[in-house]
Amino acid sequence: MVVADAKVEPELGGDFSAASEALLNALGNKVVMSAAICAQHANITTYLPNEPPDAVVYANDTRDVQTVVGICREFGVPLIPFGTGTSLEGHVNAPYGGISLDLSRMDRILAVHADDLDCVIEPGVTRKRLNENLRDQGLFFPIDPGADASLGGMVSTRASGTNAVRYGTMKDNVLALKVVLPNGDVITTARRARKTSAGYDLTRLFVGAEGTLGVITEITLRLYGIPETIVAGVCPFPTIRDACDTVIETIQSGVPVARIELLDEVQVRASNGYAKLGLPETPHLFLEFHGTPAGAREQAERFAEIAAAHSAGAFVSADRPEDRNRLWQARHDAYWSVLPLRPGAKAVATDVCVPLSRLADCVMETKRDIEEMGLIAPIVGHVGDGNFHTTLMVDVADPADTAKAKLFMARMVERAIAMDGTCTGEHGVGQGKMKYLAAEHGAATLDAMRTLKRAFDPQNIMNPGKIVAV
Amino acid sequence: MVVADAKVEPELGGDFSAASEALLNALGNKVVMSAAICAQHANITTYLPNEPPDAVVYANDTRDVQTVVGICREFGVPLIPFGTGTSLEGHVNAPYGGISLDLSRMDRILAVHADDLDCVIEPGVTRKRLNENLRDQGLFFPIDPGADASLGGMVSTRASGTNAVRYGTMKDNVLALKVVLPNGDVITTARRARKTSAGYDLTRLFVGAEGTLGVITEITLRLYGIPETIVAGVCPFPTIRDACDTVIETIQSGVPVARIELLDEVQVRASNGYAKLGLPETPHLFLEFHGTPAGAREQAERFAEIAAAHSAGAFVSADRPEDRNRLWQARHDAYWSVLPLRPGAKAVATDVCVPLSRLADCVMETKRDIEEMGLIAPIVGHVGDGNFHTTLMVDVADPADTAKAKLFMARMVERAIAMDGTCTGEHGVGQGKMKYLAAEHGAATLDAMRTLKRAFDPQNIMNPGKIVAV
């Protein structure tokens, strides 16, 4: 029985009214159709339009997820997994309507295996809550995108953040996933061993798949011991290039820096205003070193020597935990700090990633573009991996301003791709960056991605209109 | 035109005579059909039977590979990529005949980007030659399976080795791959940026796929700066459990140990005999620490304190490079060292991997089994990751001895899986471990792996009869 619903395109949207009836029968008040709740479950973070789903379903467990997947499959209705809604490229929009499957109630920490340095959690656990729960066991999970995202969302966008240069990205820190596939099967991609060669890497298939291949309902993560000693600090540079050259030499010399973050002079000014940092308004690196007491100190000294050879000012360390926290809070508050730069505008964050040797060129050409186009766009970067962000202040109500912002972002991506880089280092594709994948990967690679999508989701019910949009 | 060839099963082996005619026309003397060459290109490392291909083709470049893939597709003939033939589970056997595609002549180092800490190579480059080429630039590639394997083979089996505890496995160190797909498309899975969220992780799809999804013709690898200071050494323990508990505490305390290798007392005795190490014949850890001078020393001290609390003897460091090299050469020569333990027998290596907390139990129960079954089987392990090997001395000419060895290996795998571990940490599945995948992963997960295989290789020409054997 296929009855077209007025709100959705029949070919892609399926029979929503029949699906909603079945959902209400099966899940009762876990199904919510209020317009406000639906709008909150679509894109709210960027210039992309808000495209709400037809209904939101709150899942309590894997069984609920199976029920929803089964009904969406039966009636051909789109299904969009939802964590905290902090993604930046329209990942949670519902361009063809359908169901937003809210996993925030699946927030149990199922097991912490301290001796094995791993834990098993549900996808709705957020990174801050996870770390609060781990702290008294001397453990932590290092991946920290700016927002307090859900771990399910972080898996799905292949998130990273400030610690990735030392601890890797989500790709490197997920041991196993439980996933409900579009065909209704519940699979576990791997066991708890820290490494395996036992067949295809299904774990990495779902890391970064943005909910287009299945719904993650359980995550096994690698954990780390909290380092004995943490040395943090800041270091000013006369130019972006000096800072970038210092980064390259530090990484190349094998200093296992835990964080090495670039803030351009515009961002430093903004952070000075927001967090009262009192820093000179030139490009800075914010750094952190983890290790034994002498080891961490020696890393910091080695960095300071390299920096001095690149005309840096003094490395000022933040030794007390409260000073260190203040520093990183300021870094994580970059988004908030820029809002006063253009009152009323929206802060639209975008990222690219290039090989290290091209970083200085890419950042400097991007800054020239910002200046020439008359934009306000501070730059911050996880520069140890060649990854940086611009935070564009856009008046989204003004079509001309939005068009200029889009042009700027397209040029930034083209520049990164021309330097053998990628259109996104950690934000993901969603809707916003689909248009760049052909230029980045080529037609045959995109075809291979489509082959994957079709093989696992032949009906195209899982988060349709994202990544490869078959 | 499909004409059955006597040597191969027509359904699975395709039309070999037509394929060989086409190959000879296209590639001339790159096609070799001598029985001796064919036998060398099948399994020669274990108790598994040698199942030679019908022909060997030596590829010079990606174009040759495309030609071979095209002809194999046209005539439905199996195609088995071949590097150095050092894999341990029958990966290169040709159970349905067909073509062994020898990639050893594709051994060019195409680019070393020292500033980016990456390189681009062909799949026939071996790990030792790569490191010889990198050394004078102060760089190295850390992954070191015992054999001097080709990088293409190491990608395909998701290899690791002694450094994985610090530097990860092949999964963590491949940035991009060029692959000829069964449909003839040549794809590049990613660009050279150190991280990306731009779509599905096709790179990890081919890492560990054992040549069943396509032929790798180019590899972009992450490189590392050679550490300023390397401290290596050995430490004796009264029992396996004391050694394992020391490993857990060392990892948990965040000491970034670069190598932490277990040798049981049987292996120590064998290595003493082979390499004149003169060690006390008790379980040992062999260790290495990388860092700044004080940092590496402090790591070693921290380890020694932890070890002392677990009844260890003194940590004896090997400070001179020649002593350090002798130590690791002895570790890598474990295979050769055990041959005198049972003259005439074959050394059959197998591996499992379990969560760290189960390592001592798993190793000790395995040792009990060795004793009770009257086997000779020294144990070595990359224990920082919970991964260990037995080297079984098997008289492969004696069916009873082979049967006993197989029973022992099956029990070792069952034990690992019961402890939430995997049937192989780094050797791969090949033919030898296919029978364990259902127990390890469950039927639905195996189905998902088969979905992948069918999507990319619907004709089942790529290394058929391996991993999931659709």
From TrEMBL, chains A, B:
GO biological process, one term: lactate catabolic process
FAD-binding PCMH-type domain boundaries: 49-226
UniProt-listed PANTHER family: D-LACTATE DEHYDROGENASE, D-LACTATE DEHYDROGENASE, MITOCHONDRIAL-RELATED
Organism field: Aquabacter spiritensis
Keyword Disulfide bond: no
Top-level EC class as recorded in UniProt: oxidoreductase
PROSITE patterns: FAD_PCMH
Keyword annotations of the record: FAD, Flavoprotein, Oxidoreductase, Transit peptide
Coiled-coil region: none
EC number of this enzyme: 1.1.2.4
Cofactor(s) listed in the protein's UniProt record: FAD
Protein name: D-lactate dehydrogenase (cytochrome)
Family classification: Belongs to the FAD-binding oxidoreductase/transferase type 4 family.
SUPFAM superfamilies registered for this protein in UniProt: FAD-binding/transporter-associated domain-like (SSF56176), FAD-linked oxidases, C-terminal domain (SSF55103)
Sample GO molecular function, one term: FAD binding
InterPro entries the UniProt entry points to: FAD-bd_oxidored_4_C, FAD-bd_PCMH, FAD-bd_PCMH-like_sf, FAD-bd_PCMH_sub2, FAD-linked_Oxase-like_C, Oxid_FAD_bind_N, Vanillyl_alc_oxidase_C-sub2
